[in-house]
Write a structure and sequence with these properties.
The radius of gyration is 22 Å and the shape is globular. It folds into 2 domains: 161 residues, P-loop containing nucleotide triphosphate hydrolases (Rossmann fold); 116 residues, no CATH class. The chain is built from 10 helices and 9 strands. It has 316 residues and is α/β, with parallel strands linked by helices.
Length: 316
């Protein structure tokens, strides 16, 4: 267990990664193929839509070379049976001396319907009926797999960059302790679904009501000074850090490889951005591998790009 900001980790953690077998499944149109491609990009040997009866033999045949593999399967896979697939794969993985992880890629029904409508592709289970019927039928078929998944990722409002970050954070082969991701967000656009810890900073003084600060962001020094001058901010941040000093080593000690901390305010522009920036600096100083993004900041703001702020495009 690490007690120094993730700088130490066990040899078991180092050696376990190459022995992984990741089953990537989920709703059609939710981004399963994209997820599989991301895993391939970070070093996994990937196989997609092989007939289900062939998967155990595949896993056992590649056991000797030590490479981590990712296998894609969904309702279009020949011989697919959600109720029995995991037990069958788990047996093969165990015989091969590997460890099985199940990733389920999901999405809201409305977003799935829109994706199929926009691409004019038929849903594989809809037949001659409406797309919504196929989505409901598939969700029922996959419920057993989703319930047993090690990681469920909802791509409804996720960017392609964020999906890559999530998968890399959880399954990178060059493991080196727990990674931490900090993101600011606007409550008006919803809480990030992938968040492990969520902190609400709407109690802080809001720069939105100061005319000269309204169009700026929490990355701006004058905005930062305004928020930092709130009488309760120093006490809040000190207690937040004390909590994280307790929690992060415990999470890492339990084997968690990736942790997302979300900081929210009303518009996701001032307070949450400032606190996320400050927290990221503190985490890095303590030795934690930390990434930062500001989910709801626009790509450009008045006066030009936002320094130090990360934005990305929507997933297809």
């Amino acid at each position: 267990m690490s007690t120094q900001g993730g700088q130490k980790h066990s040899e078991a953690t180092k050696s376990a990664a190459p022995g992984r077998v990741i089953l990537v499944t989920g709703m059609s149109g939710a981004g399963r193929s994209t997820a599989l491609k991301i895993l391939e990009d970070i070093g996994y040997e990937s196989f997609d839509n092989l007939p289900a009866p062939l998967l155990p033999a595949l896993i056992e045949s590649v056991a000797g070379d030590g490479r981590a593999i990712a296998v894609g399967a969904d309702t279009r896979t020949r011989g697919f049976a959600a109720e029995t697939m995991l037990d069958t794969l788990a047996g093969a993985v165990c015989r091969a001396g590997r460890e099985l992880h199940v990733v389920f890629i999901d999405c809201d029904d409305d977003r799935l319907q829109r994706r199929y409508t926009e691409t004019r592709r038929p849903h594989p289970l809809a037949g001659d009926g409406p797309i919504t019927d196929g989505i409901r039928r598939e969700r029922r078929m996959l419920s057993a797999l989703r319930d047993r998944a090690d990681l469920a990722i909802d791509t409804s409002a996720l960017t392609a960059t964020a999906l890559k970050r999530l998968l890399t954070g959880h399954f990178a082969l060059d493991t080196g302790g727990m990674r931490v991701f900090v993101t600011s967000f606007a409550y008006r656009h919803g809480v990030p679904r992938e968040a492990d810890l969520v902190f609400d900073v709407r109690f802080l003084e809001n720069p939105h009501y100061v005319d000269r600060l309204r169009e700026r962001t929490g990355c701006d020094p004058e905005v930062a000074a305004h928020i930092g001058s709130d009488a309760d901010y120093p006490s809040f941040f000190e207690r937040l850090w004390q909590l994280l000093e307790l929690l992060l080593p415990r999470y890492e000690g339990c084997g968690k490889s990736y942790l997302t901390i979300a900081i929210g305010c009303t518009g996701g522009r001032h307070r949450s951005v400032y606190v996320a920036e400050q927290l990221t600096t503190k985490l890095r100083e303590a030795g934690w591998q930390t990434e930062l993004a500001h989910r709801d900041l626009p790509p450009r703001t008045v006066g030009g790009p936002v320094a130090g702020c990360i934005n990305s495009v929507s997933i297809s």
